[in-house]
Amino acid sequence: MASQVASPSASLHTTSSSTTLSTPALSPSSPTQLSPDDLELLAKLEEQNRLLETDSKSLRSVNGSRRNSGSSLVSSSSASSNLSHLEEDSWILWGRIVNEWEDVRKKKEKQVKELVRKGIPHHFRAIVWQLLCSAQSMPIKDQYSELLKMTSPCEKLIRRDIARTYPEHDFFKEKDSLGQEVLFNVMKAYSLVDREVGYCQGSAFIVGLLLMQMPEEEAFCVFVKLMQDYRLRELFKPSMAELGLCMYQFECMIQEHLPELYVHFQSQSFHTSMYASSWFLTIFLTTFPLPIATRIFDIFMSEGLEIVFRVGLALLQMNQAELLQLDMEGMLQHFQKVIPHQFDSGPDKLIQASYQVKYNAKKMKKLRTENRLLKQRIETLEKVSMLVTRFNGQVTRAQEAEENYLIKRELATIKQQSDEAITKLEQAENTIRELQHQHSRYSEDFVLQLEKELVQARLSEAESHCALKEMQDKVLEMEKRNSSLPDEENVARLQEELIAVKLREAEALMGLKELRQQVKDLEEHWQRHLARTTGRWKDPPRKNTVNELQDELMTVRLREAETQAELKETKQRMMEMETQGQINNNHLRRAEQEVTSLQGKVQYLSAQNKGLLAQLNEAKRRQAEIECKSKEEVMAVRLREADRIAAVVELQQHIAELEIQKEEGKIQGQLNNSDSNQYIRELKDQIAELHHEVSDKILVSDHLHLLSYFKSSTIWDCRALFYAVTTACCTYALGDSFMKESSSIQKLTASFTQYVFFLDI
């Protein structure tokens, strides 16, 4: 398949010999210096290249020739027949350069660069690209067929992206077409040669452009050379460190040459990688149409990545005004839709603008060095952080081991304490059993003691309630006295009011003194006036006129004095009104303060009331607990009483059996008179003791029933029961057993009296 694939243009590596034969101007004896005719021919060549690149018919004929040819789609003879006179001149010039490449490259490198910048003819592009990158005789070309037989781990990725590479181009748009197949072959072969890079998106566009110009073996060799010598391999590595360096260098160029645009990009968070990464990865092949991108790729083959920096900065300079007016989304749309079609008329304007950009190679090298140093620092810091992390992990593990040791020690101590507590618990249980055994012996005395303690506790509780109420009453009286007394702030305000009133009184007294002085002055003037008027009829007419004027002056002065007096009275009234207003304001302020203090007291009393209610509830709860305990104790006493009744029944049964035995002994005559009398007396004593125990137990049970009744009855029921019990005791005391039961009756009466007294409280 490699031998069948041909370039879209003429395969010049196979037709170069025929070209040299058909054009005598390309002989080795041709002069190496460019004559004026050559320069004129060069100008014509540039014009023809521009016409060829803008002529769509010629491009379609080139693409059609790719589909209809085998190893060479356009032969030298057919091309020469279709070329005009200018095309023949360009063929002659570029043919001479190709044939004498080594000498021209060494001696006229600048002229070659200028020719490349103005455009390589389409039919010479394949051979010139190979010469520019020195890929015409590479040993790896012989391994290509063997590489195609091998399997690559990147085949699935390559198959997935092939349909996205030049989807509108005739050579690649059909699925499983010849173009897609040769593109897959080249990408697969390179992924096997360079396993570190393998396959990276974007590289397929460069390979696709190479396949448009040359067969797949030569395209593979050129791509390998580009990856090795043109920094593309570093761009396509998985880390993409070189791409980050390019972004950093390009951003520094923007900051230096276009500071306003740089500030705008920073303010909009519009990073350089958002629009410029595809420029470096595909050499503008995904940005511009193929004619423009191919002209830029010509210069890239001659000068390297420098043209990408120049063209990128030129684009930003030409679109700076529009970009400054847009936000992030608008700038993205501008880069995707507007910029690609700005140079449809031709790339000359863009290339000319790109070479007006100042590109400092030394500064770029310096930036590269700075970036490398930063990377080394970052790597060093990462290593240090890894060491610190490991050290922290070791420290953490040591701390955890120490904590585990401490926890184990604490656990052992706790186990020891637990064993000791279990031993103490067993001892306590034994003690409780012994106490319970003793308690069963002295239960009656214990019940009486509990009853006495209960009565005393309730008495003390009632006394504490009374004392609490007295203290609360005293607190309220003290608060009332304190509220009636003026506080320090009120005293200070009253003093201020008193000082203000005294000042106003002093001002009023001063005004009054001034009025009195004016009145005295007026009285003196009036006396003088009277003295003068007494002899007025004796004076001449002129003197009379003067006297009239003096009278009018006195009248005016009198009116002025009256007016001033009225003014003083008005001021005095105003001062009195102001004083009264201030006094009223002070009264209002004091009333508000008193209201606020009363509200605070109300809140305090409500909080105090809540606390007392809580204490009352707590006391009720304690009383309920005590009553529950007493009920439980009463139930226990009742159970013991039932046990004693059962014992009494057994004793009575035993007495009956003894009496039966006695009767049987009398009948049988087995006992003599002395023995029988002694035995009868013993039996009577036992019966008397048993009767005494039974009566005591019955009395105790009655006592407990009465106590339980007292606890659940009102005061009036208890008093009525008290009189009934007293009457019964007196009646019972008239019998023969009064002396025997008097102690129990006294105990019952004393307990009952204490309980009734507590209920009265």
UniProtKB/TrEMBL annotation:
It comes from Anser brachyrhynchus. GO terms for molecular function: GTPase activator activity; small GTPase binding. It comes from the Eukaryota. Transmembrane segments: none annotated. Residues 1-36, 59-79 have a biased composition (Low complexity). This is Ecotropic viral integration site 5. It holds the Pfam family RabGAP-TBC. Residues 411-445, 505-668 form a coiled coil. Residues 1-40, 54-79 are annotated as: Disordered. PROSITE patterns: TBC_RABGAP. Keywords: Coiled coil, Phosphoprotein. Residues 119-304 form the Rab-GAP TBC domain.
